[in-house]
Request: fold
Amino acid sequence: MIDLLVRILINAIGVYVAVLVVPQISFPAADNLLKFQGNWWHVVVVALILAVINAYVKPILKALSFPITLLTLGLFSLVLNAFLLLFVAFLADKVGINFTIGGFPPKFTADAFVGALLGSIVISIVSIVLGMLDRGRRIVV
Reply:
């Protein structure tokens, strides 16, 4: 249970950094996140959606797309991550959270895909770095 909460916290930090770095990602709830003002819990909900997508949907899609990932020497995994981030934006819109990537949802453009690609790269880098810091908590002597 604690691992899931840590994973959600890492995803929330990754989403926050992506909002700060990638100009195509618009997330008004993240503007006052450090002050805990406004709808800061929207960031937690988006991180929860991202954690569920990464835990359940991503492994299935990675297994199904293994041949094309192998053919492209792993670059297709970046495209898969971008589409999953767009799917997170779609689900967040359905639950009433204003999380858009390049105008998606409602319209899918090249700007939305580029923003999702850059956002997924930023979230992955933040998750890797914070995941390495989290490994110290898991070591049992």
